[in-house]
Amino acid sequence: MEATHAGDARSPLTFLCLASYEKGHRALEELKKQGCRVLLLTSLSLKEKAAWPRESLDDIFYIEDNEHEWDLQQMLRGVAHLFRTEQIDRIFPLDDFDLEKAAYLREHFRVPGMGETATRYFRDKLAMRMKAAESGIRVPDFTSTFNYQKIASFLERVPGPWVLKPRLMAGAIGIKKLHEAQGVWDRIHSAGDEQSFSLVERFVPGSVYHVDSIWFRGEMVYAVASSYGTPPLDVTTSGGIFTTTILEGGSQEDRALRTINEQVLKAFGLRDGVSHTEFIRAHGDKAYYFLETSARVGGAHISDLIEAATGVNLWAEWAKVEVAAASGDRYPLPHPRTDYGGLLISLARQEWPDTSSFRDPELVWRLQKQHHVGFIVKSPHRERVEELLGLYSERVRNEYHASAPPREKVRE
Ligand SMILES: Nc1ncnc2c1ncn2[C@@H]1O[C@H](COP(=O)(O)OP(=O)(O)OP(=O)(O)O)[C@@H](O)[C@H]1O
Ligand SMILES: [Mg+2]
Fold first, then answer.
1. Based on C-alpha coordinates, what's the Rg of the chain?
2. Whose alpha carbon is nearest atom 15 of ligand 1?
3. pLDDT in tens, 331-365
4. pTM over the 0.90 mark
5. 239: CA distance to ligand 2 center in Å?
6. Which of 179, 292, 343 is the pocket-test mutation for ligand 1 (most atoms within 8 Å of CB)?
7. What residues contact residue 137 under an 8 Å CB cut-off, 6+ apart?
8. How many angstroms separate the alpha carbon of residue 351 from the centre of ligand 2?
9. pLDDT of residue 9
């Protein structure tokens, strides 16, 4: 492999950042702050829309996209042009869907970081199920959808309901909960040539949690565990209100979740970066089941929630971890506050809802988005956060809430 120049006084590290969607401003800003040369490759369709932090970018390149999808060969050729004059040290994917693009480019241009096999465990829900199960981590019973006989024996052996889900999507898109085996078969057959891109698993009724963590040199250096209110699938299918709350630090749940999070990500080989990982605690046996993981910052404003409560911005920390890893430096651990925080997001009937009557001193952030309401509250006391989220959920349900049909394909 060609040696890449480590960043030193003479040559700053050059990062090529990939963004099929607009996100990760704080990571771009932090890379610049750390003295890197920052190149951004993004979707052409965002050209007039995205408000990138231009002062943090040394250059920006656009690639034609089909609703944010890129042609990988075209991307590779474009990046090859860039390589003629740039020495790129690291490739930094900003969106979940950019992870495999980054891996593909790293493999071709021999850039350090996660390659295609390693990345699979963080993108492909079948790969993550299999890897977790192999590593002795509890997962909902599952099967691939490649082979009729295997599907049939799974549906016989494992009681329903089941969920059929796309292996490579996010945002609960295309996930179907099915009560009848025939329903599973119908959906599998209607997938046609796409049949192999799903998996079926047992629906495990329970509470859903997420652990957001920072990793450096293969060690979990920071983690925050939170619990969703209504499980995310129920929010998308039954039009509920999305909430999540940071757990009581050191409580049994908090400790159990951090431990299993560490087990999962060590088994999956995460070295340097961040992760948003989800678990279900079954109502039945009270055990924790691994739901899914990723090697990126969690969506749905979870990073804003964590920053409000702890002062730690996961995008900025991710950039710091990447720079420290690339230059061989120490990663300075953040000094988090230990406040509690809660986040609420809902669709709203009003185009630009007026939320000025929400005025508690604990209210630290409001979502500004068409047909949405969203709040973050923080307090040194977890009970106060729960109380406020309860009150706000009630008011939002009565005064603002609207629901939309679940999404099959489209992503925002
Ligand atoms: N086996 C299961 N048992 C019970 N609920 C499940 C199961 N699989 C998925 N769900 C529900 O579906 C939601 C979305 O599933 P998952 O996290 O796997 O998909 P996703 O598309 O990545 O979603 P998101 O991006 O919203 O996290 C979960 O939060 C949970 O509510
Ligand atoms: Mg999920």
1. 22
2. 172
3. 998 899 999 999 999 999 999 999 999 999 999 99
4. yes
5. 16
6. 292
7. 260, 263, 264, 267, 290
8. 28
9. 53
**Ligand 1 atom nearest to CA at 228:** 29
For the Cβ of 302 lying below 6 angstroms from any atom of ligand 1, the answer is no
Task: Tell me the helix, strand and coil percentages in the chain, rounded to 5.
Answer: 35, 25, 40
- Nearest ligand atom owner, CA of 161: 1
Angle formed at CA 321 by CA 37 and CA 412, multiple of 5 degrees: 80
Cα–Cα distance, 226 to 397 (Å, whole number): 22
Q: Is 199 in the pocket of ligand 1 (CB under 6 A)?
A: no
**Any residues with CB less than 8 A from the CB of 84 and at least 6 apart, and which?**
none
336 CA distance to ligand 1 middle (Å): 29
How deeply is 10 buried, as exposed, middle or buried, from its count of CB atoms within 10 A (0-12, 13-18, 19+)?
exposed
Measured in angstroms, how far is the CA atom of residue 9 from the centroid of ligand 1?
46
Mean pLDDT of 11-20: 96
| Dihedral angle sign, alpha carbons of residues 23, 27, 31, 32 | positive
Structure-block tokens of residue 230: 């209504």
Q: What pLDDT digit, counting tens, does each position of 104-119 carry?
A: 999 999 999 999 999 9
Closest ligand 1 atom to Cα of 169: 21
**Is 231 a pocket residue for ligand 1 (Cβ < 6 Å)?**
yes
Of 141, 163, 200, the one to substitute when testing ligand 1's pocket (max ligand atoms within 8 A of C-beta) is 163
- SS3 track for 22-88: CCCHHHHHHHHHCCCEEEEEEEHHHCCCCCCCHHHCCEEEEECCECCECCHHHHHHHHHHHHHHCCC
Q: Residue holding tokens 């509250």?
A: 377
Percent of the chain's residues with pLDDT above 90: 90
pLDDT tens digits for range 143-192: 999 999 999 999 999 999 999 999 997 666 789 999 999 999 999 999 99
Q: Measured in angstroms, how far is the CA atom of residue 14 from the centroid of ligand 2?
A: 32
Cβ(18)–Cβ(35) below 8 Å:
no
Distance 87 CA to ligand 1 centre (A): 40
Among 369, 382, 374, 300, smallest CA distance to 341 is for: 382
Q: Which atom of ligand 1 is nearest to the CA of 206?
A: 4
Give me 403's structure tokens.
Answer: 């629901």
State the Cα–Cα distance between residues 263 and 253, nearest whole angstrom.
15
φ, ψ for residue 313, nearest 5 deg: -95, 115
